[in-house]
């Protein structure tokens, strides 16, 4: 792969001594338009190897990274998009402190850059927007979080509609009840009229007899 170019690699991180899900590395390999058949990504506890061919740039890319510390590849997430390969790499050791750097070797490399869109300072990470942690959803780790929140919102709307329907049903029932009462009231005079008619009819024969 001597003729292959080295892709730009962006990274940021979070750390936690108690919550494994908040103890991870954001890693993005910026190579666009790599078909799945042309992509090879090997993830290991100590590092990763990436190879890919960009159709739009018509170029091969290759990079090997050896991490500062171990990751848990089984708990890590990978999301391949048309723009890049995004990863959330779970740090194996729960630790409050940040890794001092991404790579084991302290030597600076030109292709590795800080992902300022995702980066927060170590002492401010607990105040980071939820989107920073929710970004894991895009990696396939928690795809339901954003959807669930929207569903919950939608559920609230549905609940409102149901409640209004239930309320409307109760009102409709009351109106029907009132109508029934009115019908009963209307029937009473009819009964009285029938009784009067009965009395009148019973008095008619007496008149005829006379």
UniProtKB/TrEMBL annotation:
<dbReference type="InterPro" id="IPR008978">
    <property type="entry name" value="HSP20-like_chaperone"/>
</dbReference>
<protein>
    <submittedName>
        <fullName>HSP20-like chaperone</fullName>
    </submittedName>
</protein>
<dbReference type="InterPro" id="IPR007052">
    <property type="entry name" value="CS_dom"/>
</dbReference>
<dbReference type="GO" id="GO:0006457">
    <property type="term" value="P:protein folding"/>
</dbReference>
<comment type="similarity">
    <text>Belongs to the p23/wos2 family.</text>
</comment>
<dbReference type="GO" id="GO:0051131">
    <property type="term" value="P:chaperone-mediated protein complex assembly"/>
</dbReference>
<feature type="domain" description="CS">
    <location>
        <begin position="4"/>
        <end position="103"/>
    </location>
</feature>
<dbReference type="GO" id="GO:0051087">
    <property type="term" value="F:protein-folding chaperone binding"/>
</dbReference>
<dbReference type="Pfam" id="PF04969">
    <property type="entry name" value="CS"/>
</dbReference>
<dbReference type="GO" id="GO:0005829">
    <property type="term" value="C:cytosol"/>
</dbReference>
<feature type="compositionally biased region" description="Acidic residues">
    <location>
        <begin position="172"/>
        <end position="197"/>
    </location>
</feature>
<feature type="region of interest" description="Disordered">
    <location>
        <begin position="151"/>
        <end position="210"/>
    </location>
</feature>
<dbReference type="InterPro" id="IPR045250">
    <property type="entry name" value="p23-like"/>
</dbReference>
<dbReference type="GO" id="GO:0051879">
    <property type="term" value="F:Hsp90 protein binding"/>
</dbReference>
<dbReference type="GO" id="GO:0005634">
    <property type="term" value="C:nucleus"/>
</dbReference>
């Amino acid at each position: 792969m001597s003729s292959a170019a080295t892709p730009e690699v962006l990274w940021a991180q979070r750390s936690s001594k108690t919550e494994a899900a908040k103890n991870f590395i954001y890693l993005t390999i910026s190579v666009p338009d790599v078909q799945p058949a042309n992509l090879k990504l090997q993830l290991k506890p100590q590092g990763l190897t990436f190879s890919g061919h960009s159709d739009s740039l018509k170029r091969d890319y290759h990079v090997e990274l050896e991490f500062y510390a171990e990751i848990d590849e089984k708990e890590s997430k990978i999301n391949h998009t048309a723009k890049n390969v995004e990863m959330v790499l779970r740090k194996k050791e729960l630790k409050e402190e940040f890794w001092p750097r991404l790579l084991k070797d302290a030597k600076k490399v030109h292709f590795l850059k800080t992902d300022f869109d995702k980066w927060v300072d170590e002492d401010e990470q607990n105040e980071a927007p939820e989107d920073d942690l929710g970004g894991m959803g895009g990696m396939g780790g928690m795809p339901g979080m954003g959807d669930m929140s929207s569903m919950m919102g939608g559920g609230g709307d549905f609940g409102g509609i149901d409640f209004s329907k239930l309320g409307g049903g109760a009102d409709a029932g009351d109106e029907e009840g009132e109508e029934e009462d009115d019908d009963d009231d209307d029937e009473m005079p009819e009964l009285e009229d029938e009784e009067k008619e009965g009395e009148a009819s019973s008095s008619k024969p007496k008149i005829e007899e006379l």
